[in-house]
Write a structure and sequence with these properties.
This protein is mainly alpha-helical. The protein contains eight helices and no strands.
Length: about 170
């Protein structure tokens, strides 16, 4: 496979950049740096990976975890202060959910559930892609997704939309 062209890289940044930053934010306080480094590594590849998006998520995940470990070595106090960072949701008057409450509820989920929800909803990854990314089974990823959504609905007081089961 040929190296990625600049237009291909630009398209990948446009399509996945924001979601990758959100994804990396789960682990570290420098998500933009981790994502930028992942794109630099992608540009330096001799050949394009079979699935550039999946490759980027793997590199961002590994980089974010490494960055988090480095930050924890600098001290618990700094990490606790830095963890307050930016909210995961933008506040909007038109939104039905309170962005701060939704951010807190998402942060309180176990990492497996939170990672799966972020990768699925914002990253638009399939359950199979998330399973490969996390080294888990597809059924485990699906279960984490369902449990995480149920916990978020409960914590935020939001019910699941009812499906119309009657046929006319």
């Amino acid at each position: 496979m040929n190296p990625l062209e600049p237009d291909d890289l630009a398209r990948l940044v446009d399509q996945h950049g924001a979601a990758l930053v959100l994804y990396a934010r789960q682990w570290c306080q420098c998500p933009e740096d981790v994502v930028q480094q992942a794109f630099v590594q992608l540009a330096q590849q001799g050949s394009a990976p079979a699935s550039p998006a999946g490759w980027l998520y793997r590199v961002v995940r590994n980089g974010a975890i490494s960055a988090a470990r480095s930050a924890s070595r600098r001290g618990r106090r700094e990490a606790a202060v830095a963890h307050r960072g930016e909210p995961w949701f933008e506040v909007s008057e038109a939104d039905r959910l309170d962005a701060r409450e939704a951010t807190l509820a998402l942060r309180r989920l176990p990492i497996e559930q939170r990672e799966t929800i972020v990768a699925r909803l914002w990253g638009q990854l399939s359950f199979e892609e998330i399973a490969r990314l996390t080294g888990s089974s597809t059924s485990s990823v699906h279960r984490w997704y369902q449990k995480g959504l149920a916990a978020l609905r409960e914590r935020l007081g939001v019910s699941c939309p009812k499906k119309n089961l009657s046929k006319n």
